[in-house]
Specification:
With about 500 residues, the protein is mainly beta. The protein is about 15% helix and about 35% strand. It has six helices and 21 strands. The strands form four sheets. It has a nine-stranded mixed β-sheet with strand order 9-11-7-6-21-19-14-17-16. A five-stranded antiparallel β-sheet has the order 2-1-5-4-3. Helix 4 runs antiparallel to helix 5. The two termini are about 30 Å apart.
Length: about 500
């Protein structure tokens, strides 16, 4: 299957978005016109697509939180496929528009659907959807490397290389089976002599020192209510990314993931297409089903013949007994425009007490600007942003010996101007959002032993492994307020 068009948009908060790159495929568009017949909707100009996309994502007009076509409760949203409603002479709806966002970049593509427009087919039945998402994920990794934020010059050079890259990974609008997830391989490599035939998706060969890098990243999300009648929620999502600089047309590499003796089995395991074989019991373990003692508990071996570029070897989820940081947040209104604040954060004893960074953000919405801030913290440093009504508690790289930190005090809100607003956080409904990263550890205990990485190649490679635990959507709600059951800030 194919994609009709692709866009990469840059959007900074408070500014208008811009289309940094776009590509249309006339041959695919001709097929779309033949398939749709009278219901065909042409792709509008980039400026129109930009406004429709930002509106659908809620980024165009922050002062208008409700848009009927987007937020009507009768609409059945089927993410990650968006509907772009076009007005004017060419009135109609573009679907499915797939999006992937990271920081200020939004990557989107319109997939070709070869099924009747009504009723809409399930997303899981459309091959073009999975191929489109794989293409966007690959382009995202190409532009942002391992997920960081490159400097403007590096990003500009990668945008300049995009036209040549698109010719390799998406010729004539059809993504290749193995998407390129890094800078394009040099096309000057010679095809080696021998019986092995070089696959079409591998455009070059590695020459030089052999190095295999394996990075394991676990992301933890949590919603903590501090209310016995509402259980806290958390989940863990892990990814294993590889870069294999190994000589040979089809070198064989095996990466093994191991669990601690009391570790929970991995669930929802997804693997890259280059993985050649895998125990079926690894793929059938799902977090939807109740786990039992018969679940596969490792070791998890992934044999594969790697592409030249960095790629995501596998992803998984894990059921862990506790989140890494347990929090208690209490807000009370003592007087008009004055709040009493009490916060307690505790690093769980099973988690390594050596952090790369750790911050707690406390926003206060729908109030005047902060005036008097009388708060005392037992550890760390407190930064106050009165314009944003935001407290940033910088906890640093280590919790105290007790592994617990506290904040106590009062805040008055009688500034000259109004602070930021939020339709969810009204009255005493508020939250703390945690940001942290812990190196050389995972919450599930999964690790990659460098000695377990097997490489069948003429040269002995250098093996590099790393692992880290990071937060995303980690919220602690005020226990004396009415926290939403399934808020827009976190959906588990």
């Amino acid at each position: 299957m194919s994609v009709r068009a692709l866009w990469i948009v840059s959007h900074e908060k408070g500014e208008n978005g811009t289309v940094r790159f776009s590509r249309r495929f006339p041959t695919v568009e001709h097929r779309a016109k033949l398939l749709a017949g009278a219901s065909y909707v042409p792709v509008p100009e980039d400026d129109t697509v930009l406004q429709l996309l930002l509106t659908e994502l809620g980024l165009s007009e922050p002062q208008k939180p409700f848009v009927l076509l987007r937020d009507d409760c009768l609409k059945c949203q089927r993410l990650p496929a968006l509907d772009l409603h076009i007005d004017g002479p060419e009135k109609g709806t573009l679907w499915p528009v797939l999006t992937v966002s990271h920081g200020s970049l939004i990557l989107a593509c319109l997939s070709l659907v070869d099924a009747p427009a009504e009723p809409r087919p399930p997303l899981s039945s459309l091959l073009s959807v999975s191929q489109g998402l794989a293409l966007l994920s690959g382009l995202q990794n190409f532009l942002l490397s391992s997920g960081g934020r490159p400097d403007p010059d590096a990003l500009a050079s990668r945008f300049a290389a995009l036209p040549a890259l698109m010719l390799q990974v998406c010729p004539l609008g059809t993504p290749l089976e193995v998407p390129v997830l890094g800078p394009p391989a040099p096309s000057t490599s010679q095809v080696p002599a021998g019986n092995q035939k070089q696959p079409a998706w591998k455009t070059g060969l590695h020459r030089g020192r052999a190095v295999v890098s394996v990075a394991l990243v676990e992301t933890v999300r949590s919603t903590q209510y501090g209310n016995p009648s509402r259980p806290d929620l958390w989940d863990v999502y892990g990814t294993v990314t590889c870069k294999c600089e190994v000589e040979g047309v089809l070198p064989n590499v095996t990466v093994t993931l191991t669990l601690p003796p009391n570790g929970s089995p991995l669930q929802d395991v997804l693997v890259h297409p280059c993985v050649s074989s895998l125990d079926s019991s690894v793929l059938t373990a799902s977090s939807v089903d109740q786990s039992d003692s018969s679940s596969f508990s490792g070791p998890y071996k992934f044999p594969f013949s790697p592409p030249l570029e960095p790629f995501r070897l596998c992803s998984y989820t894990s059921q862990v007994p506790v989140p890494p940081i347990l929090g208690s947040y209490l807000l009370r209104e003592e007087e008009k425009q004055q709040l009493r604040v009490s916060v307690s954060l505790k690093l769980h004893e099973s988690v390594k007490n050596s952090l790369d960074f750790c911050e707690a953000h406390l926003p206060f919405f729908n109030r005047n600007q902060m005036n008097s801030v009388e708060l005392k913290v037992s550890s760390g440093q407190l930064d106050v942003s009165r314009e944003k009504n935001l407290l940033v508690w910088v906890l640093g790289q280590k919790f105290p010996k007790s592994r617990e930190v506290t904040m106590e005090g009062r805040i008055s809100f009688c500034g000259p101007a109004a602070g930021p607003s939020d339709p969810v956080c009204t009255g005493l409904t508020g939250y703390i959002k945690m940001y942290f990263k812990i190196l050389d550890t995972t919450l599930s205990g999964v690790c990659v032993d460098p000695h377990s990485v097997q490489v069948y190649s003429s040269a002995k490679p250098r093996i590099l492994t790393s692992r880290e635990l990071q937060s995303k959507d980690f919220f602690i709600w005020n226990s004396s307020g009415s926290a939403p059951a399934s808020s827009g800030h976190l959906i588990l």
